[in-house]
Structures are given as structure tokens and as C-alpha cells.
Design a protein that fits this description.
Strand order of the largest sheet: 3-2-1-4-5-6-7
Radius of gyration: 18 Å
Strand content: 5-15%
Bound molecules: nicotinamide-adenine-dinucleotide
Number of helices: 8
Number of domains: 2
Number of strands: 7
CATH topology of the largest domain: Rossmann fold
CATH class of the largest domain: Alpha Beta
CATH architecture of the largest domain: 3-Layer(aba) Sandwich
Length: about 260
Amino acid sequence: MNSQTGTTPRVAVVTGTSSGIGAAVVKHFCEQGHQVLAVDFNTAGKEVADAAGAAFYQADLTDPEACRGAIADAVKRYGSVDILVNNAGIQHVASIENFPEEKWRQIIDLMLTAPFLLTQAAWPLMREKGWGRVINIASIHAQVASPGKSAYVSAKHGMIGLTKTAALEGGEQGITANAICPAYVKTPLVDNQIADQAKLHGMDEQEVVEKIMLKDAAVKRLIEPSEVAQMVAYLASDAAGAVTGSSWNIDLGWTAH
Ligand SMILES: NC(=O)c1ccc[n+]([C@@H]2O[C@H](COP(=O)([O-])OP(=O)(O)OC[C@H]3O[C@@H](n4cnc5c(N)ncnc54)[C@H](O)[C@@H]3O)[C@@H](O)[C@H]2O)c1
């Protein structure tokens, strides 16, 4: 146990770390004293990792070999993987009728198949230690749908199924698996959507946030990436050993309707 942070140091692999939620998780984990491998296809992830004190592995996670390579790299550097945070994600908005098949496959590969392959590769390491944490960054779109987001919604709903299955298989092996379901978080992924919606509806960006994104929210603001990182840190902690198979909403009260 690190006496300053009150946290047992672990080895963590975090995906999608060049910005947004993943970058916040890398920073938070490093501050807690964990050894962190940050994985991203964007080399900007290296600067984020360097600044936080993490290692960086460049990988396009739509490639199965890159998923296995990321876990192998963590083992080479640190000898194990205790915590896996599946966070990398993209968005594409189009009606089902017009949704490009290539985009559909890319989203499913990155946001459902990669988390499966990463979990599969990390599993024996966690099982041998009798301790492991799989944390999947899903979305409120793992529980409800929105038009135009068929691939994203399908991948995120699938991620909940993967989380529950991993929880049942890991229960007797000391491995927990949980999902976090945020509503709109202030990250580049959402900034792009705000800009797109502003053009589409002829509104300014502030209006898009207030009238579209926060319409059904009880708390009328966007979520900070650091707020999600703190929930990740709890689920990764020893204190969360009895929490598994669950979906944690951080959704401004959106689904309370
Ligand atoms: N921002 C939100 O409002 C919000 C809400 C709910 C869920 N989420 C989820 O949180 C996760 C992180 O999103 P964010 O908002 O921080 O977005 P972001 O765009 O800031 O970060 C996504 C990261 O994934 C990386 N990435 C994209 N394609 C990749 C690939 N092929 N291989 C490796 N890395 C790749 C990007 O480089 C980036 O670092 C996503 O899974 C997203 O679906 C976000």
C-alpha cells in the first residue's frame, strides 16, 4: 500500500489515452502510484503518457494483433496486468439506411471486439494472481438509443453483455468486471458533435449544449473527464472487490426520467 495515496500499486493498461476520459484516467492512475501503459493509435498519446509518467504503446486497436501486442508490451515492461480499462472509442452519425458498412465494422471492431480481445489476453495474468479489474467505458447509449447512432449504440449495448459475462466468469478468480455509463463528457468526441449539431440545426454551440444535449439532464452541465476517472479509480480499488457485473451511470440524471 502506498502510504501517501492509500492505494495498492497495480499495473494498469488503459486504451484511448491521447485525449478525453482516457487521458484523465492515465493521469489519475499515475497520481495514485500505479504503473500505467497508455495505448492509442494517435502519437499525441505519447505526450499525455510522458506528462503523467506512464509508458506509451502505439496501436490501432481495430487490429487484433495490436490488442494482443498491447498486453504483451505491458507484461514485458511490468511483468503483469492487474487493471484493464477499455476506453478507446469513436462515433459516426448516420441513419441505418445511409450508414457505411465500413464504419459499422470499424466501430464494432474498436469498441466491442477490441475490449473482448484485450480482456482475453489479460485474463490469464489476472487469474494467476487471483486479482483483476476490468473496467469498460460504455455510455448511457449502452442503455438507451438515439437515432443515427446504430453502430455506437450496438457496440455499447454489447459491451454491457461482455461486462456481465466477464463478471460471472471472474467471480471465483478474484476478477471483477464493471461498466461505466456516462452521458455527455467534455471531451474532443463531444466537441465535434456540438460543432456538427450546430451546423445541422443552425444554432450556436451554447444553444446546442443547452437545448439538445442537456435537455433531459437534471444537472445542467457537461461532465468533466476527471469525474469519470475518479469512478474508474474506485472500481479499480481493493474497496470495490464486491462490485461486479454492474453498470455505473454518471449521467446527470438523464435516465431518471
Ligand atoms: N465524451 C462523452 O460524452 C462520452 C460519453 C459516454 C461514453 N464515452 C466513451 O468514452 C470513451 C472515450 O471517449 P472520449 O469522449 O474521451 O473521446 P476522445 O475522442 O477524447 O478519446 C477517444 C480516444 O480513442 C482513441 N482511438 C480512436 N480510435 C482508435 C483506434 N483505432 N485505436 C486506438 N485508439 C483509438 C483516440 O485517439 C482517443 O485518444 C469512448 O469509448 C466513448 O464512447 C464518451
